[in-house]
Amino acid sequence: EVAPNSIVKNILHNYTDESIVEYNIHNGKETVVILSGGFWNNGVTTALINTLENIDTSKRNYICFFEKSKIKKEHYYRLLELPENVLFYPTTGEVNGNLSDRLLIKKYLWNENYSAKGRKKQIRKIYREEFDRLFGDLQVDWFIHYTGFERKEAEMMRHIDAKKAIWVHTDMFEEYNAKKNFSKKIVFDAYKDVDRIVMVHENLRDNLDKNIIGIKNKLITVNNFLGESRTRKLGNTNLFESLENVKVDYAFNDNAYKSFNQIQLENLKNDLQLIIEDVKDKRNIDYKSVIYRILEISSGYRTSEYLNHIVDVEEKMIDEVLNRLKKIFGQNYNLIYQLVYKEFINYILPYLKDSERELHFYFPELKDRITEYTNSIDIIVENEYHFNKSNETHLTNNDESIKLITNYYQTLKREKDLTFKFNSLFEKHIKDIKYYLNDNVIKSDNQSLKNPIFDFYSHFRISKIKMMNALFDDEIKVYINIGRYDYQKGHDKLIDAFEKVYEYDNKVFLILVCPHGPLKSKTINRIRNSKAKENVVILGGMNNPYPLLAHCDAFVLSSNFEGLGLVVYEALALDTDVITVDLEETIQYLEENQAIVVPNSSEGIYDGLYKHVNNQFNKKPFDFNPFREKSEIEFDNVFY
């Protein structure tokens, strides 16, 4: 039994005796802390997750750390999906120090021209204390700046005693010229003081070696893990589930809300209106020719069962008017046809445009059933419930019941319209839709699946319905780009190229998945003014874009520069075709016919789209195994 005072003495003065046994909780492995960033939807996050899932994390203790304020609630799930023995550590608080320290740090970090000459010792002291504040007595063997941009951590790593490595994910000189989004002073000085500068691609070496003196022997390459296993696993997730709660940043839906019959009737009305405008205020009109022209134009709209019925009704009504007027006016044909024209404008055309007419056409029993219901309820109310037939409350309830019946049939008609318009989705995948609704939407014992098509439409809304229908339509080629609203991603070139191929063949569709970025308004306005806007949808960030990527016909990489362009290989892992601009860092792993490689211009991307649209590409499979094994060895070499 250990005496209480012995424990106190042990804690305060390291006292030991035969009753006290001390254990070292350190497991003897190196500890690696990794500045991971906030696990946002971007390529750096994907590259880090792929790395952690492919290396042997039992060799060392790995801890991902990040400022707590940098992670958003919608990205928490990524922390829970880290490998079991990889820890995460959200840091809080600010750098300690007096007013002089704080002013110095602020000026040094954010004024690119301020070198802090003569105050280096003060800066060193501040950051060593900050490292101790963050990690305390933890024995840190390796400090890895994985994101490669953050100023505070880049400066801190220069002053600590651990071994240090900083990752380079892209051409930092191109990045700075395009966006000025990091401090060259801080980051490039950190390069000089770390043990390893880890490039994700060998092609980044020359620029770094040429522009920064004294780092040549620190440069090593660790090619990104392509993460094919993780991509395939995520790609098998239900497409509908992956699109839930995904924001639509832009879609043009003016016509998408309307049924096929509504659009055709509007087009017919517009064509007939042109005739009416042409006749207006003119003299010596041949009204017989005008009526024949109306009938001729209308006959061209026999494109559905209902429209065929409408044209039949129109012809019958005009014929009845003609016969009636002939009996009155005999052989005065010009007067007769002029009167027919007037009746057409005033009575026949409004009659044909009646929106309720289509409902009763598809459900001819509706009128009789409403009458039968109201008659039956009147009798029951008066004879059995002993209400006066003229009772105001009763009449109101009756009207509500009629509205309920009408709404029920309107929903059935809406389902019919949706099935006809989006048949690739609602006819081919109705079983999947019902399964999804039952599993994800119907959540109460008091609910049941009665109108699956209408319920699915109401759940996802028109933009996603239109997009999913294109995905399942064998006659439409769907292209996708995944990347933030940023100059680096080259969306302007892609939009120009897509617009051009749309003019050549409008059976194409473009999906942009853009989580965030400085060019959001500019990109959306470019699409809004595009001739191809009806066939473009822009989605916001997606937790799992891989089911969508798997369902597309091809991924298009349009970037101006990349460290790798990882999504190209994620698409290949999902057996989705790839059209990519000829960035050396991206295409060096590719053999002929594994992707369509094009010059980095809108014309080049158009040529790639044209080739794909015309099925001029026979894809050769990509073998991931050699690259995974190579990356494993390269990553391990960082620590030796």
UniProtKB/TrEMBL annotation:
In this chain the PRD domain maps to 309-419
What are the record keywords, sorted? Transferase
Q: Name one GO molecular function term.
A: glycosyltransferase activity
Query: InterPro entries, per this entry?
Result: Glyco_trans_1 (IPR001296), PRD (IPR011608)
Q: Which Pfam families match?
A: Glycos_transf_1
User: What Gene Ontology biological process does one annotation of this record name?
Assistant: regulation of DNA-templated transcription
Superkingdom field: Bacteria
Please give the PANTHER family that the UniProt record associates with this protein: GLYCOSYLTRANSFERASE
Species name for this entry?
Staphylococcus succinus
Protein's name according to its UniProt entry:
Glycosyl transferase family 1
